[in-house]
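To: structure subgroup
Subject: Chain for Friday's discussion

All,

I'm putting the inputs and outputs inline so they're searchable in the archive.
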Amino acid sequence: SAIGGSPEFGIDIPGGTASFEGGRDRAHDIAVRNGSVYLLGQVQNPATFRYTWRIEKRDAATGYLQAWATSSPNAYETRLAMTLSSEHLIVAGAERTTGTDYSLRIEKRRLDTLALDPNFGNSVPGNLAGAGVILLLLDSEFREVVALAADATSLYLAGKYTDSNLQDDTHLEKRSLTTGGLDASFVGGRMDLNGGASDEPSDLLLDDGQLFVAIRRESGTDFPITVENLDPTTGAVLDSALFVDPFWGLGYDFEATLASDDEFLYVSGKRAIADDPGDYEWMTWKISRATLEPASGFGVNGQVTFNPSWSEEFGDHLDDSIVVGGIIYLAGEDHE
């Protein structure tokens, strides 16, 4: 759960890093804004093995803690997501405290103090929490929140459902960034994308008026990474297969992450290597946003691959990507 890199970062912090404290802790998401680093994770209570959500704001140059907040105490470990608007930080996850049912939890906090926004969530039907938090008891089919995205007025959420046939479905929501209420113009506020027997969302990207969703979609005996392009206003599917891994018949695809700049969309993921059973590699495709064709001069036919090390299925996870100054950065796990 550490962050670091520059020679000055963390030198006056015990251990030389900025990290959570507790039992089996885990960082889920990170963002940078106006000289501060925002870190979202979970802290385990070693006595009960339950988890508390923790948000930290640290100075990007030194790593010093500027503000912190905790919530959702006594919960099981779950996947968390975070996004930033101009003045606020939004975090979300699936909260499971007892049994098999999950609650959808969304928090909106100020970037400067991490205090909850008192205007968020008050008018949401069925909300079980107070101001600043949406807590909705869903059902046993809801599993997790995968990704968030926001613009000046709206919040987009991608999550996973398990339907009555025990198949996974990609679930999308659009909510008001001010109140947290569902936006009815977006297919009633909620929609499910199920283009195969089983869909599992991997990432969500909102950029320059375009909404992209990365999905691991079952097709026969394979699971190719697919990217869909949706109208961010209405939810209409503009392209159900903007990108499909062209080598998907050679081995299973796993999680994917999306990044973009003014000209290109970058689709990165983890894929099984067909001629080396049990080994997995990272791949990145660079696609022109104008032509939707692979970018010439980038790797081979618009794709580069990297194999961190030989690993089993649960290793070499690719967690996130970002493009800065013409360079794409990938972050994940090298399982040796």
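Points worth raising on Friday:
The CA atoms of residues 270 and 282 lie 5 Å apart.
The chain has no helices and 22 strands.

D.
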